[in-house]
Amino acid sequence: MNRESAPQAPEAPAQEADASSPDQSSALSTSALEKMILAKLDDDKAQDVVSIDLKDKSSVADRMIVASGRSHRHVGALADHLLRVLKDAGYGRARVEGLPHCDWVLIDAGDVIVHLFRPEVRQFYNIEKIWSVEPPSRAVVN
């Protein structure tokens, strides 16, 4: 058999360009990802949605979104719908924790991490306070 490799040659540079473009536009992709997640949570009637900037606080992600659902079923539906939207947008590798119990569901979409809680669980863990508190300034002693 005679296989031609010429048709594959033009595809290789295009793939390299695609691989480099997320690095160049990572801020844009993070912003677009955040807007997409916030829009879907709004559409699905998530409650008390908070977005926290983590750029200078953590190397794990650039943004954290925290939201509440009214019940186990609502939290599960929020997570399921959000995962579908992420997959359709090309973020199909998002990791999920807590989906079977639906008390606290964590979705790691790369640059954006989403926490979905039942209200009682959210109040107990209070992660917004952990991540949104500014570092204390040092006291000056005279």
Distance between the termini: 86 Å
What characterizes the major β-sheet? 5 strands, mixed
Side-by-side strand order of the widest sheet: 1-2-5-4-3
Secondary structure class reads alpha+beta
Number of strands: 5
Bulk shape: globular
Contiguous runs where pLDDT drops below 50 for at least 5 residues: 1-28
Mean pLDDT: 78
- Radius of gyration from the alpha-carbon trace, in angstroms: 20 Å
Describe this structure in words.
The chain contains five helices and five strands. It starts with 10 loop residues before the first helix and ends in a 10-residue tail after the last helix. The model is unreliable at 1-28 (pLDDT under 50). It is globular. It has a five-stranded mixed sheet. With 142 residues, it is an alpha+beta fold.
Describe the SSE topology.
Blueprint lengths: L10 H14 L1 H18 L3 E7 L9 E6 L3 H17 L6 E3 L6 E5 L3 E6 L1 H7 L1 H6 L10
Parallel strand pairs: 2-5
Antiparallel strand pairs: 1-2, 3-4, 4-5
